[in-house]
């Protein structure tokens, strides 16, 4: 396996990563308030720009 993109996030735990078609879904648990978790949806890694572009954030109610 080869790492194409690596980043860190403050005050959250990454709990799952899934790939579907041209998108990457990453779920996060907030370390202080678990009910404030969320899912970020990214476009697949772009080798030309070296980026993983955020498309949407899904938050709980």
Would you mind describing this structure in some detail?
The protein has one domain (12-59). 0% of the residues lie in helices and 48% in strands. The model has no long low-confidence stretch (mean pLDDT 87). The chain is built from no helices and 4 strands. Strands 1-2-3-4 form a 4-stranded antiparallel sheet, with no helix packed on it. A hairpin with a 7-residue loop joins strand 2 (23-30) and strand 3 (38-43).
Question: In short, what is this structure?
Answer:
With 61 residues, the chain is mainly beta. It is 0% helix and 48% strand.
Tags for this model:
single chain, 61 residues, mainly beta, four-stranded antiparallel β-sheet
Write the layout of secondary structure elements.
Layout (H helix, E strand, L loop, with lengths): L11 E9 L2 E8 L7 E6 L10 E6 L2
Antiparallel strand pairs: 1-2, 2-3, 3-4
